[in-house]
Automatic annotation (TrEMBL):
It comes from Paraburkholderia aromaticivorans. This is DUF465 domain-containing protein. The lineage of its organism: Bacteria, Pseudomonadati, Pseudomonadota, Betaproteobacteria, Burkholderiales.
Amino acid sequence: MFPEFRDLISRLKTEDAHFARLFERHNDLDHQISNMEAGVTPSDNVAIEGLKKEKLQLKDQLYAVLKKASAS
């Protein structure tokens, strides 16, 4: 995710607690969705779609933080 910001992501994960929490939640959702889609975790399409929407919102928030940090 966001390879152009790889160095900035590494720095923000250690320096910005809010960014770190968003990043961790995004990764948690990614794993949950993968497990649900693979059938490892029981689920239905409605639950998966809800998690995907939350993940997309987090990605938007992460991108906003990255853009702001890269501009400064």
